[in-house]
Amino acid sequence: MTSRGVRVSGEAGERSEGVVPQQSPEFRLRLPGASGVDRARGVLLAGVGTNGSRKFLLRAGSPARDRAMPSFARHFKGAHQRREELRAAGVLRRSERWPGWLELTEDVECGSPSAAAEVLVGAPRNGWVEWRTESGAPLSDFMEGVWSGPGRAWLVRGSNVSGVDLVQRLWLPEERVSLPAARLRPDIGQGPSKERLRAVVEEDWGTTATYNQKLELVEELHAFLSRMKPGDTVCTLSGGRFYIGEITGPAEQTASDNGRSNLRRPVEWQSTSHAFDELPEEIQQRLSVQHDVVDLTAVQPLLDGLGRTDEELADEADSLTHDPSDTIPALAARRELALPEPGQPLADELLVHDVEWLREIRELLWDERQIVLYGPPGTGKTYLALKLAEFLGGGPEQVKLVQFHPSYAYEDFFEGFRPREDPQTREVAFRLTAGPLRELADLASREGNRHVPHFLIIDEINRANLAKVFGELYFLLEYRNKSVRLTYSGDDFALPPNLFVIGTMNTADRSIALVDAAMRRRFAFVELSPRSEPTSGLLRRWLHRQGEDSRPADLLDALNSRIEEADFRIGPSYLMKNGVHRQGGLERVWRTKILPLLEEHHYGESLDIERRYGLSALARSIDNAGKAGESAP
User: Fold this and answer.
1) Residue 623 buriedness (CB in 10 A; 0-12 / 13-18 / 19+)
2) Whether 118 and 85 share a structural domain
3) Helix, strand, or coil here: 143?
4) Can you give the residue range of the structural domain that contains 384?
């Protein structure tokens, strides 16, 4: 890997080839913490460096920081070495005008605007953006044929191009990135429109490529030739290592063996690489997209923070913002996702017997990210899921509830085509419409939201055809660091790390055994049953808090003791209502809510439901048991 080119103009035995274009303005650079210090000055040169990037000339008298970022020598060895060479030669020495700063005593020619900025700052810098004219225009505005707009990040694959690892053979040693286009006509260079590329690809590739291959090729060529620009971040993978660099010049077409690398751009690669397995999950998701060129701009802040401490990032950002309310994207992106720890106040609010039970639910969510609360009707599954999600997510805004039913489908849950009226023409047409999961995933993945937990509550999750509803999303539930190509939109999609799923399942409606193995493997299952805590004593605790008599709890316990199948026992929610304690309220709920459930359960059996489960029968059994207890010695 070569170092970034930096040399002093007019060194002994050497003549500078840098020529300042007549129309090139002078650019200025503000240094971090440079209050009372002049801005550095420089101009863009007409010449190009060994890898094709435009050279840049630093003017004598430009200030420089007297210290470098601690990790600068490790990640940017070439620029660090040149900076030290200039200091040793006395070209970069302590300033008499600005105490505590360094100053250039001669003009210095650099291999690129970014290399020039790094020599002065002692930290990575995007020179195409940070070198600006007196009026504030960035240097990139003065490059012809370059896509305008903010910087972007790109993945370009090169570890297996016709069986050759170009990353190790060409890209790193010669500081390049390339794209194979063996059939592309030679007059196509920097900046063609997508429409022109469609016509060129159709004509040049003809029947040698399928329709889909041509579509993909047009997108890749347009990104590489027209959308990428100097200053953009470029990344690649090779041998399980992740490499990051900066594009430093325009695209060019050149001859190469078998057309493996005939489209090339100059790149300044960082000196260090990163293990793929240690990358943040969101970066791994993006890298799993199966295209040769992938837009990584959504994870740009995470890329900027790789290998750098919080202090280094804050120091780097000093020169980029004047507003103390501004956030540093790389620091904001690395804010860790966390689920708050449940305490006794939450246990008291939910009437849970032990706060440790709530903490176990939190740990299951953290480890698995998907759980199912299952049990008989009335055990408080949906209520508990909502309250837990609101507590762990920080409020109801981060919680979305959807209820499954037999006709529910993938198109309802994730995305599909639905009739929609155009607000202007009033015409109705089928349009791709996002479902609740897609909407919540998009919200959770927004910049600034990635450290905030978001929850999807799926009520009655077992009432739908789960394989039909989830489709390819089944894969993502288990492999959160991967992405898949969506059925309708064709987008590459991954579930955000901060998206959690809580399902509820009524075991009286359908047995848990009917849920397929794929579903059970992807969810942790937590039982809420009247036979065990926190459900068994829930009604008694609620009655005590309400200041009511415990008689309804005694009746419910007596009822459940007569129901042999655990999945059909009655939960306490039916009796946790104020109306139960009005005149005739208990009898009314028993007659209209509880007995009909038991009649359905015993349908076809010659059983007297009232005699076995009626209030009067249960009351007599409780009274008789009490008298028997009193008469016992």
Assistant:
1) exposed
2) yes
3) coil
4) 344-527
